[in-house]
Known about the structure:
Layout: H1 8-12, E1 15-20, H2 25-40, E2 48-54, H3 60-68, H4 78-90, E3 92-96, H5 102-115, E4 122-127, H6 134-143, E5 157-162, H7 169-179, E6 188-191, H8 198-209, E7 222-230, H9 239-264, H10 273-285, E8 295-301, E9 328-334, E10 344-350, E11 357-364, E12 383-389, E13 393-402, E14 408-417, H11 418-421, H12 429-439, H13 448-466, E15 473-476, H14 483-492
Parallel strand pairs: 1-2, 1-4, 2-3, 4-5, 5-6, 7-10, 8-15
Antiparallel strand pairs: 7-11, 8-9, 9-10, 11-12, 12-13, 13-14
Helix pairs in contact: 2-12, 7-13, 9-10, 9-13, 10-13
Bound molecules: NADP nicotinamide-adenine-dinucleotide phosphate (NAP).
The site of NADP nicotinamide-adenine-dinucleotide phosphate (NAP) has 18 residues, from helix 2.
Amino acid sequence: MTNSSDRASDKEKALTVVVIGASGDLARKKIFPALFSLYSQDLLPAKTNFVGFSRSDLSPEEFREKLREHLACRYLPRELCGEKMGSFLSLCHYVPGQYDSADAFLDLYQAMRGIEDEDQANRIFYMAIPPSLFLDVSRALGASGLVSCGDHLQAWSRAVIEKPFGHDRASSDELVAQMAQIFTESETYRIDHYLGKEVIQNLIVLRFANQIFEPLWNRSYIESVWISFDEDFGAEGRGGYFDRYGIVRDVMQNHLTQILALVAMERPRRLDAIEILNEKVKVLRAVAPLKMEDFVLGQYVGSDRGGVRRPGYLDEESVPSDSTTPTYAATVIRVDNDRWRGVPFIVTAGKALERRATEIRVLFRRSEENLFKIDGETPPPNELVIRVQPDEAIYFRTINKVPGLRMRLAECDLNLRYAQAFSGPVPEAYESLILDVIRGDKSLFIRKDELETAWDIFTPALHEAARGARKPEPYEYGSEGPEGALELIRKFRSV
Ligand SMILES: NC(=O)c1ccc[n+]([C@@H]2O[C@H](COP(=O)([O-])OP(=O)(O)OC[C@H]3O[C@@H](n4cnc5c(N)ncnc54)[C@H](OP(=O)(O)O)[C@@H]3O)[C@@H](O)[C@H]2O)c1
């Protein structure tokens, strides 16, 4: 994300990417396809190898076939695709083994020594496994001598881990402390894949490369900020995982809090990871911890909307029939600093809603002294909409004269649609993030203090919820969400 160029030495040095949990969904559907995209664009070091490790008993051929199913040539002409895929797959190796077995990791060690034709290959260990296994695996990696530690050695080792990082502040701290025994903070890359999305990376550019926004980006001109995550499907198939976490931990504490930090932070002094992360931490520290009463919580129930039967959350096989895990949450976050004091950040996230979209909406203040009226009313306020997914777009709602001999006004959009404005495919978040791990650019990863601060905002309410303090409000699958949330939205959105 920052202006850093590849370090020449890292491009020349051999690299081994070890994917632990290689038989899983994340590995097959996201990580290996992203690695292939980077490989097909010659963005990886010339001597790069890929090693999958998991318990499944697969031959190397079976493993490669599993990977092939999800590879796509997004950056290559069709005629070059087959050959490039073949050469990529020939670099993909597989070692089966248990996650807590020293012998299995010695097998991995031997396999890697056989593949790496020099002593000093850089190594990435991508933990594509349930978080309960992070520690066992890190310890086994350390014990087998696979991790070279400290920055002084000629080759580096980096660990990539995916959320959830714990389930509250204390468990997150413990995970961080235990992992730190094997991988230092500078060697640990905590992924929030939302930060790798193009539109999210563009936030900092939009705000700070365009002079028009900064003078307006404050409480004098902005009435409210809306950050929403709507999914049009339920927990389908992921009920077991989801029920342990709920929507606040799954989406709000990480993805949406990260977005809020990027929208609200001060301008970093420089475009480097330390400065950017410092500003993100600073703004998150200005947010007071939330209480349970600050939330509207919901849980979807079955519906027959449009003549289609949709199951409720409690109908999911892997969900306990008395679960009170919220599948919807809405809250109002206040940032107590000079820029934002008094401006509500309305943050909502829900599953099984009527639409699928992740959006940021910045609502500007309406001026009562407007010269113009629409149907006798002051025109609606300007609004900047940043759509993260699907169909990435940024548009600005403005008031314009409708062509004609009369003075008639209408609200129209100044519109940037990525698909029309930019040629070529929009990179997947994982492509960008994995490349940053190789380059050692940590600006899009979650630093320890950032993680602590994000948990501090949500932990008190999560603990209150765990004491069974509140049952979530029911809302129908395919609806706009629970009534309590709609009331909250109406309260802050008068237009
Ligand atoms: N899928 C996504 O898009 C996504 C997005 C964000 C974050 N994540 C996070 O990324 C990690 C991996 O996600 P995933 O969807 O790939 O997970 P997964 O499919 O459930 O697990 C990955 C692999 O880990 C092994 N495994 C699963 N459960 C295990 C258990 N209880 N004990 C021992 N091994 C077990 C399995 O391999 P073997 O049986 O062959 O060992 C499985 O193929 C998780 O931390 C998840 O929260 C995933």
